[in-house]
Specification:
Blueprint lengths: L1 E8 L8 E4 L4 E5 L6 H11 L29 E9 L11 E9 L4 E5 L2 E3 L1 H9 L10 E3 H8 L3 H11 L2 H104 L1 H90 L5 H24 L4 H92 L5 E2 H5 L6 H8 L6 E2 L3 H10 L18 H15 L3 H13 L5 E3 L5 E3 L2 E3 L4 H83 L5 H181 L3 H5 L12 H15 L6 H63 L3 E6 L10 E6 L13 H18 L4 E5 L7 H14 L4 E5 L3 H6 L2 E7 L5 E8 L3 H6 L13
Parallel strand pairs: 3-17, 3-18, 8-16, 16-17
Antiparallel strand pairs: 1-2, 1-4, 4-5, 5-6, 6-7, 9-10, 11-12, 12-13, 14-15, 18-19
Length: 1128
Amino acid sequence: MKLQRLKMMGFKSFADSVTIEFNAGITAIVGPNGSGKSNVVDALAWVLGAQSPRLMRLAKMEELIYAGGDGRQPLGRAEVTIEFDNADQQVALPMAEIAMSRAMTRNGDALYRLNGAQCRLVDLVDTLSEANLGKTQHVIISQGEIESLANAKGDEIRGVLEDAAQVSVLRRRLNQAERHVESVTQSLGEVAVKERELRRRIKPLRAQVSLYEQRAELTRRRDAVALWVLRRRLEGYGEQAQQAAETLRVITARLGELQEHQEVVERRSSTLEPLLVRLRSARQEIADLRGEVLAAMTPLNELEANIARTDAELAMVTEELDRVNGSRRDVSARIDELEREGEELAVQRAELSAERRRFDERAPVRPVELETLVAELRGQRSHLLAEQRRQRMERERRDSEEQSRQQRRLRAETRNAEVKDELVVRERELAEVEAQRGELVVALEQQRLELESVQVEVADYAGRERELQGQLRVLGSQVNSLAKLAGADAATSLGQTLMPRAGLAQAVAAVLGELSEAHVYDSVDELLAALDAEPVESFVGYVPSKEGSGDASAFFEEAPQWLSTHFEGVRLVDSVLDSLRQGDSSGTLVDRSGTVFRAGLLRVGASQRAVAQLQLATHQRELAELTREHDEIAKRLAELRPKASSSRETLNAAEGELKALTRRGEQIASRVASLHSESGTLAVELEFLQTPVEDAEEMASSVDTEITAIDRQLEEVTAQLDERRLLTQEYERERGELERSDVSIRLKAADLAAQLKAASDRLAELDARADVLGQRATSGDHHHVIGLAEVRGLLARLRSLAEQLSQQANLLLPLEDRVVKARAEEEKERELAEQRRVARALELETLASQRLDAATEESRLRSRLLTEEEAAVRATGLPIAHIRQAVLPDVIAPTAAEPLLAELEDQIVQVGQVNPLAALELGELEEELERFRVETADVREAHQQAEKAFVLIESEMASRINEMVAQVTVEFDRLMERLFRGGTGAIIFDDPTAPLTSSISLDIKIPAKKVRRLGLLSGGERSLVSLAFLFAVLKVRPVPFVVLDEVEAALDDKNLSAFASLIEDVSQDCQVIVVTHQRRTMEVAHSLVGISMSPRGFSNVVRHVLTDAPQDYISGEVPVDGVDDRSA
């Protein structure tokens, strides 16, 4: 991440819009006092999130808005924009450039923008923190901060290191964890108090529930005995009614014999007519069935046509599969061809690379390099002459320096060996962590896919279960209603056995009439057993309400009058009768509502009991099927839900483990990077220390030799310079041709790689398409064979059935002729039977009178029985069937039933009133108590987790601060040695056993000085020590840029050179922006920004100089092209 530019408008002394460009390296902001240089630093601090007016040298924030000047009005708004180059994606935003703006008006309104979009200050701060540009990262360093750091106490130094190590974030998390632990502890106490209160309330409720259960048991026994006594009373009334019924049965039997004899005679005269009707009806039914068979063959013929179409589609799928296989072979061949071309290109690239290496090896020295060499040789000669004078004075110092170098070399070698050993261990550990993390990522993805599949299946089954539950509730309600309406018969009725299709129950019940309620038994023994168990009157027989003459004309004369009273309008009645007249008068018509039309009979509607029985059978079958499906779904859900829960738990555990591994890998990677950095530093230091210190006398003689050699070399180089320039031009031309060849090969290789990837993708698509087509072909062939066989078998069976029906219809024709002849002979016998009927009529009248008396007595007794039963039902609230089945407990003798009943009544009175809601209230309280137990367990677990998190955060904080102190100590020691020539520096804990609370101090050693505390050093030395500490922190915790506001003001010329060398070193890692008046600092700058104050009282950027030789600008020799005048 790189700082590109800063835009200011209305900020302090910058009244007009001003833009300052920043390049890589060191940018020096120069200008006279009072021109507004420090205002640039304040603008940077403000846009980076500074909130305190004191940090920007203000009494209140409104003062940062331009206050006006000579002839210029004050402005009402200040705005600063900072722009970064985010090409390295250090900030996780999908943008190559990031622009952050902060504006404020005089009424205190603030506006923040991120790439033009309005946002909050916290959003800007969070974005900057990703690039280590937070408010506490010490990227803006002023002279006052240098002074305060030199006099800082241990806690203040500790704060700087904690900010760099981002321990403050963890400290906030630690405080949150501590508050969470306190909150959980308080919640645990509150839950315990509620649990004790529930237990106190449950104890008396349990006593009430026990008393309620005792009374309920006594009441149950009392009701059972009372019900049995009532049953015995009703049975006595029933026995009296049974005796009267027996007398009636004897009379009825005799009457039945006479009537049966008469009916035999009548049936003999009337059997042929119904037989004829039945024969004709059978022929009609056979014709209807044959029509239905022929109609059923139509969809089968259509199905056979569909199978033929399926054959054609199967052939098309097979053809497409062949085409796909051919494409697969073509693509595979293309892939092989592309791979061969890629191998040829790789060979060409290798040959070209070898040619480039050979070409670079014989490349001539560039003319500019020779010119630089001439300048360097001249500088070396001047330097050697000065060195020759200086060496005499440093002979004694070199002797002592050699001893110091040997000691430092030994320490560096030891530390370098330790760092390399630790680096090997850390890299091995990092490789293991990355391997584990890769395996865990694959397993986690598989587990997530499995969980999603199970959740989808559970949702589908749960939806179907809810749908079935709704259907079951509706069907259950219908079955209960129909069961009450149909009655609880012991045997299955004929209507229930038929189970008609939905919607035809009333029509079938109307046609069957009373027969729909007839009981169906499997054997005669079962029928006799049912007759013995049930009273005779509970069975329904068919008793015609009116004897019909069988004359259709009489029916059509009387029917209109009856129909007119039950139907709206005469037209409907007439149309129905017209339809009957035009058709066969012996036929029967019935509609879905149960209305039956037949010669001599009109029945509107059917018996509700019969219809209910038919509908009950249908609904019971549907209810059984739905119940079975519901049970299967419930079973499957019971299997899937634990599986989903287990998968979710496994997924959560795996995600936690993955996060832990990721954090571990980041820690190890950070440590490896730190070790690499330290190893490189130690290697450079060893290389420097291993160079022996030459003896002064030998060095003096060698200097003379070097001066002579340099003079000779200068003459040779000058002579060769012209020759090398020609060679360099030829070399550049040939190198350009090689570069163009390399680019061409690279483009061709990229194109081949793209074609190879496209061909591979196409091959994968063709493989998938081939698999799908193969499955379709196999599936279609299988279904085709099965469907064709089934259709042909059904067609053959239907044709055979149609032929059989035709044969049956032909067999009925001779039988019909014989019946017609028998009717004629029957007329002759009817006249003789009439004479015998008159003789028996007198006997029938006598028996009918006796039967009437017996029936009256039986009716009186049964009426009394019904009255008693109704009274018993009202008194007990139970159905009569339940009363009739009442039994006495085995432990009670029948003779002791009534005394026991009185004794139970007395015990119930003694128990007294009870709370019927106690059990319900007790259950609710026990459920609540169980919830509190679960909540207590959860709270305790949360308490343990919070304490664990507290310990982990403390451990992480200690690890970070220790690691930061160790890394900064290495850099601080290196910079102290560089700045003070043999000086050392270290950062130490006052209490190493308590890294989280211990103060931190700087331990420094400067040659020839005994340092007791930093305050005793000179101003320049304090500044250098403070800068060494801050730059060591920035080296360990890199930032995109650092701003230095006149921090070298207290340094002399010698220390200025050290400072300039220091910022040059820092500029290798980040941009350096320095506000300065010092010429030595300007000399090392890569770009200069001049700030001036206009006569009207506002600042301008006078010039923005970009040059490789800043000393030209300083000396006044500035080329015209290097100046960019920017005036407000």
